[in-house]
Amino acid sequence: MHRVYLDNNATTPLLPEVFDAMRPFYLEGFGNASSIHSHGQHARAAVEKARVSVAALLNARPAEIVFTSGGTEADNLGVFGLVARGDHVITSAIEHHAVLNSCKRLEQMGCEVTYVGVNDRSQVDPQDIRRALRPNTRLISIIMANNETGVLQPVEEIGRIAQEADVFFHTDAVQAVGKVPVDVQKIGCDALSLSGHKIHAPQGTGALFIKKGTLIQPLSYGGSHERQRRAGTENVPGIVGVGKAAEIARHWLADGGPATMAGMRDALEDSVLRTTDAAGVNGLGAPRVPNTTNLYFDHIEGEALVIALDLKGLAVSSGAACSSGAIEPSHVLVAMGMPQQRARASIRVSLGKQTTQDDVDFAIRIIPETVARLREISPVYKKPVSKNDEKQAVS
Ligand SMILES: Cc1ncc(COP(=O)(O)O)c(C=O)c1O
Questions:
Q1: Which helix (H) or strand (E) holds 141?
Q2: Which atom of ligand 1 is nearest to the CA of 195?
Q3: Ligand 1 centre and the CA of 99: distance in Å?
Q4: Which residue has the higher pLDDT, 254 or 329?
Q5: How far is residue 360's CA from residue 380's CA, in Å, rounded to a whole number?
Q6: CA–CA dist 367, 261 (Å, integer)
Q7: Which atom of ligand 1 is nearest to the CA of 146?
Q8: What is the pLDDT of residues 260-317, one digit of tens each?
Q9: Mean of the pLDDT values across residues 323-343?
Q10: CA-closest candidate to residue 231, choices 241, 219, 215
Q11: According to the model, what pLDDT value does residue 62 have?
Q12: Hey, which of 8, 72, 143 would you mutate to test ligand 1's pocket, going by the most ligand atoms within 8 Å of its Cβ?
C-alpha cells in the first residue's frame, strides 16, 4: 500500500545522513565521553562537535548547550531549574504539556502561575504578559511555535519585556527549531528547548540552551556531566545525530527550504479548501512555521477522519486526544475560543524535510474525498446547494 507520512510534528523520520553519522558510535566508537583513554576522547570529540553544530543553529555559544533526553526534559529543566518556592511564573494557555504540566506541578510546590490567554489565531498578546508581571515574577515561559497550529509567538517582544523586568525568559522552541531561523540573541531568552526527533534526529534526544552566567538548578544529581547542569553519561550516538541534524537544518534554512515547504503547505490548504465546503484553517493569518496546517471540517469527527485517512495510506493527527478514556478537544484550539465541536472536527497535517510534491498531491486527492465520504454518512451534515447554503454550513 502507498503510504504518505504527514505527521512530522509528532516525530520526523531519521534522515539517512543522520543515521550514517550516528552508526559508528554504536559500534567501534562506543566509548564513554568521560573516559580519558582514546575511546573516551573520540566520543568526547564527537559530543563537542555536535555541541558546536547545535550552537551554530541557534547563534549560541557551544558552552551554552546542554544535551538532554528530549524536549520534555529540556522544558522541565528550563522551568524547574530557574524558579524556587514562592516565585511567580507567567506562561500561556497553549503550551505543550511538557511546560503546562510542569507549571501545574510548580503550583503544587508553592509557586504562583499565571496562564495568559490567546486570541482566535492562538497568539499571545505581549502586553498581557507585561500586565501579568508581579514583584515576585521569576520566569516567563512561552512556546515559540505551537505544535498544533504552527503559529509563531512574538518571542522577541516577550524577550524585551522579560529583560526590562529582569525576569528569566524560557521558550519552548521544539516546533520552531529547524523550520524557521531561531536566534537566541535576537529572542533575548535565557533558556530555549529543542527536541532531536522533531528535526530528523533520533527520539530521546534534545537540548536546552542556557544563557552564559545563568544559574540553573539541575533536575538530577550524579556526575559533573554537561558542566554540572545535567548528570548522566551522555547519549553519544544520539547527540551526534542531533549535531548532524542541526547542520542539515542550518543548510536547509540558508538554501530557501522554508519557502519551498510553505509553498507546498499553502498549495495543500488552497486546494483542500477550494474543493471542500464548511472547512477552514485554524490560525490562518498569523505567522506560522512553514510545515504545519491545522484544518477543520465541520460536521465530522477529526479522530474518524484520521482513521479513515490512515486506512487509505495517509498519516496525519487529530486536534483531539484521548484523556481519561474520553476524547477531549485540544486545549490549544479551545483556548483560541473555538467551539468544542469544531475543535473535535480538526486535523493537523505537518510536512517534513523528506516530504515530496507527490506526497502533498496524494493528500490533496485523499483528504477531500475522505471528508466527503464521512459526511455522506453524517446525520448532521447537509450538502450546500448554493453559495448561501455554504455560508450557513460554515457558520
Ligand atoms: C512544543 C513541544 N514541546 C515539547 C515537546 C516534547 O518533546 P519530546 O517529545 O522530545 O519530549 C513536544 C513534542 O511533541 C512539542 O511539540
A1: strand 137-141
A2: 10
A3: 9
A4: 254
A5: 30
A6: 19
A7: 1
A8: 999 999 999 999 999 999 999 999 999 999 999 999 999 999 999 999 999 999 999 9
A9: 86
A10: 219
A11: 98
A12: 72
Mean pLDDT for 41-66 is: 98
Report the mean per-residue pLDDT for the chain. Answer: 95
139 by DSSP, 3-state: which?
Answer: strand
Cα 393 to chain centroid distance, Å, stands at 32
Q: How many CA atoms lie within 13 A of 108 on its CB side?
A: 7
Residue 77 contacts by C-beta under 8 Å, 6 or more apart in sequence? 66, 68, 191, 208, 216, 218, 219, 229, 230
pLDDT at position 393, please? 47
CA distance 265 to 295: 12
Task: Report how far ligand 1's centroid is from the alpha carbon of 195 (Å).
Answer: 6
The C-alpha angle 226, 231, 235, rounded to 5 degrees, equals 75
Alpha helices in the chain (DSSP H): 16-22, 38-58, 71-80, 97-108, 126-132, 155-165, 184-187, 225-228, 236-254, 257-275, 302-311, 331-335, 340-344, 357-376, 387-394
The rounded radius of gyration (Å) of the Cα atoms in the chain is: 22
Distance between CA 259 and CA 253 in Å, rounded? 9
- The phi and psi torsions of 137 (rounded to 5 degrees) equal -70, 130
How far apart are alpha carbons 112 and 172 in whole angstroms?
20
CB atoms within 10 A of CB 3: 11
Grid coordinates belonging to 368: 477531500
Q: What is the pLDDT of residue 327?
A: 75
Q: Is 172 in the pocket of ligand 1 (CB under 6 A)?
A: yes
Query: What mean pLDDT do residues 61-69 have?
Result: 98
Portion of the chain with pLDDT greater than 90, in percent: 92
Q: Determine if ligand 1 sits within 6 Å of the CB of residue 153.
A: no
Q: What is the mean pLDDT of residues 196-217?
A: 98
13: which DSSP letter?
P
At 381 the pLDDT is: 79
CB of 75 closer than 6 A to ligand 1? yes
**Torsion region of 329: left, alpha or beta (phi above 0 gives left; psi -120 to 50 gives alpha):** beta
Q: Is residue 386 over pLDDT 70?
A: no
What is the bridge-based pairing of β-strands 4-5 and 314-315?
Answer: parallel
